[in-house]
Structure formats: structure tokens, C-alpha cells
User: What shape does this take?
Amino acid sequence: MKDRRKQARERLRRRKALARQRARQKATATAADALANGRGVVFAASAKTLAGDAGNAAAPKSAGREVERERQRAIDALESDVMELSRISDPSDQTTGEIARIRREVEELKQQFYANLGAWQKLQVARHPQRPYPEDFIRLLFENFSEIHGDRNFGDDPAMLAGMAWFHGKPVTVFGTQKGRDTKQRVARNFGHVKPEGYRKALRVMNLAAKFRRPIFVFVDTPGAYPGVDAEERGQAEAIARNIREMSRLPVPIIITITGEGGSGGALAVAVGDRVFMLENSVYSVISPEGCASIMWRDATKAEIAAEALKITATDLLELKLVDGIVPEPDGGAHADHAAAAKLLEPVLSNALDELAPYSPQQLVDLRYEKFRRMGQFFA
Assistant: This one.
């Protein structure tokens, strides 16, 4: 009896092993056929949609959004296939080379996809829930960060993260707007909408930086200032206006980085600086595309059209000379690799600080004044 059970278990084990082997061979053959036949249906469809030309721009906006979703789904499916093939194959298998080739193809498609994004698609990337927030950049780029709380007037605003730190062996001041990673954090940080006490906390920290001659680094990722009644009661507009005025005449270097959304006056209240940089897939605008569409057309569904008209992308703003530089992101966007995104940003910040270091306090204020006075001259 025991022998028969043992034999049955052995037969079952062999059948499972044979089934796994056949599945591996089938998956490998499918991948090889895809490569041999022009990358298969998914690859061909992805390459066709990623090629994107002026004809696509003339298509209905709803169709355009569906094409973008199809592109992303195709890339996600390919990445999933690569992971599955890697899981079921042994390093010694001949399939390893094929898998490596498929992985390179996926990376090429991702590069093409992110290189041809429109304004609306870049806005979606800037809002990606896994995108690195200012807190992540502070953790990856600075040492010994010591957070400062409260505005010495009303209270502390968790949506504004501020404090002292060290950057390349130099004492600096750093702050930024923070959205929160999960639902609990987002509610606590008010989804990145800063209230008056948050702006006053930032101003308090900036005044400390001016007193101790510390350069200021600012990271911006906010949909805009909080528009609630309580914020208005505590002087939201006055807090924003005061910050803009005071930042324009601080006697220390100020380096701004738009990491995600730079929304409206809520972003400008902490974005008056000597150097203003934008990550490749970030956006910076006087109003959100949804808000603009609601005002202009009484229809928020026209947000994609508004995004194109507002010129919110880093490329558009660099052409208009409203920002000083674009920081590249890792393949697949900054949300794909936080450490790589910080590594690409670090030399940009370091070089900007070195450029500003020789200037005297008065020269910094004068150059900042001239910088912002030159903006918008093409409208004259």
C-alpha cells in the first residue's frame, strides 16, 4: 500500500515537472516568435502608437487619451511577460539571451513613450502616486535634516516640510510642499494644499537662513494653496503675497526645483529664486487644466485642450524663459527610480550653488530682481 502511494506521488511529481517544462518552452517560443516576427502584435502596436505624428494630434481628444492608455497597457504587459519569463527560466537556459533582448526592447519602448508625451500626459506623470516627493529628495540629497515646526503665530502645517540640513558639507536650509504617500498621510498633509501657517512657517525658516547666511533649497509639488474658508480667514492671500515679496529680497542664494506639480500662486509663494529648475515630467502653471477648462468652456472634460494651451511643460517654460533648466529623469519617469532621479538632480543643484556662491548679498538681490523683470517681455 505504501509503495503504491509512493509511486503515485512520484508520477504526480514527474507530471508537474513535465508541465512546467512545457510551459517554459512555450513561453520561450512565444517570445522568440515575437522577436522574429517584428516583436509580435503588442510590440508592433506599441511601436506604431509610440511613433506619434501630427495626424494623432488631429484625432478626437477622447481617442487620444485611449491611445495613451493602450500604450501604457502594452508596456505594462510586456514588462509583466519579461518578469514571468525570468521567473520560470534558469540562468543556464538558452532563453536568457532572448529575455535580455526582450528587456532591451521594452526599455526602448518606454524611452520612446516618455519622450513623446503631450502636456496632458506629462501632467498625469507629474501626479503619479509613486513619484518622489520633496521629502524623498530631502532624504536622498541632504544630510542631518532637522525639521522645524510651527509659524510662531497659529500652528504647524504638515503640508509644508521645512528645516536645516547639510549639502556637500555646507549648512543649508531646505523646505518643500508635501502631499503624502498613502491615504492617511494625504489627509494629514491636506493633499499638499498649503494653508497660511505653512507659508508663514516657510518664511520663518527663510528668515533664519538669511540671518545665518545659509543657502535655501526649495522643492515644489503642490496643486495649489488651500482655498478653504478657514485659510481665507487666516489671510491666505496676504501670506502668499508676503512670501513673494520677502523671497525677492532675501540676501542668500535661493534654488528652486519643481518636482511634480507647480500649481498657481500656491507654488509661486515658495518659488521666487535665483535658479528655477524643473524635472523633465513636472508641470508649472497659473491654474490647473481642469480649473482653466471649467472657467473657459464651463466643461472640465476639456482639460486636455487647456493643458496644451497653458504651456505647462518644462520644455514650454524653458522656451518662454520662465525657468532656468530642465533636469532629466530616469527611463520610465522619476517614479520608476527615486534614487536615480535624485542622482540626476544632485549635480544640477551643486553647480547652481557654486555659480551663486561668489555673489555678494546685494548682487544676489539685484540679479534676482532683473531675472523676474525680464519675464514676459515678449508680450510687450
